[in-house]
Prior knowledge:
The chain is of the alpha/beta class.
Amino acid sequence: MVNKCVGCGVELQIQNQNELGFANSLDSLYCKRCYRIKHYGDYTSIKKHSVSSDKVFDAVMKIEGVILLVIDVTDIDSGLFTGIQRHLANREFIIVLTKWDLLPKTVSKQKVESYLLNKLRDMPINVLGIAMSSDKGKLGLTNLVQQIKRLKIKSLIAVGYANMGKSTLINALIGKQDHLTISPYPHTTLEINQINWDLGTIYDTPGIKIENSFFDTLEFEEFEKYSVQSAFKPKTYQLDSAQTFIIDKIGLINVIPKQNASITLYFSNQLDIHRTKYTNITSYIEKHPECLPLNLKTKRIVDKFDKFDVVFKQLGWFCLNGEFELVEVKTSLIDQVITRKALI
Length: 344
């Protein structure tokens, strides 16, 4: 019988403490890596490891059951990955939007659900239900469990991009907050991890790697600063002149209003976004050349909505309200910037 770490799913071994799965005993519940994460907050080993997305999909395709697609609601546009069409077409899905408590309380769940369903319209999957959860997965579980019972689902395979909250959600479902290893960094789960619970079986899977991610351009230690870890504290600016907003090491957005315009920022509360006059941007960059990445590309935004979002995937978004002569984004990963009708 193969003994696996209940925290990350990796096979336990006692031969080499520098390799994955090392434990003092094959009867241990957790490998050394998970033990140090849980008890000491030591995340240094996480930066060394990630899992091939193809390997994850190949494993998931061999498991019978309903796909539990977990999406971070603060990064809803990243959550619907292209692998669904290539690998999981025609499978049955329940979708869970996690981290609701990070959005302002005025956000309409019906509006967000409508936005999600619209994006799902052309995907070849069968959505059995949508649920929301918040407060580390603890709130909103009743509705999800009711759906699972009503549909008589015995096998669930939790799938999603890295750091969407899969393991946290499963811990809440099984009623053991510290069972699976969780951390604020992606790629904590390393192998398919089978968990038996009251209603059947749940499979936790390694997070799907986001290709060409803004986080790939940052140092590992900067992850917490740039990722949304706590409830948004939106910042709104009335625009009576042309302005530039600079996200350090990521890019910038230029906005030239016509009249009665405003911009609201929804990003990590730890992230300082510098604001300057549009006419001052050249001199500012000359004084702070390290603030922007190399190989900047430009996207001019043309949107038909009076109120719309310019989204930097995984990081957050700018909500623009009013009429504009120019909205322009400059960043090295321009494909990671999209627009949408205002979510809030």
